[in-house]
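Practice problem: predict the structure.
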Amino acid sequence: MKEYRTQNLYEAAFLACRGFNFTGKERNGNKVALVFPNSQELIQTIAEFYAGGTVKAKELFDWYRTLKDYVFSDQ
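Answer:
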């Protein structure tokens, strides 16, 4: 199974809110991608995100801050 990578912190936070666990981060120059195990359910959830899917706002912002801290740690 391949991995899914995203540089969009809002998308990653949405996925985390929906229960998907990221497996790490990959740096490419000054850009960082968060890595998730790929699955059909993940792809469907990504489509929901871009179609205006909803999650609890506080949970989304908590995940956003957590992921932002993780992305910028150990630069």
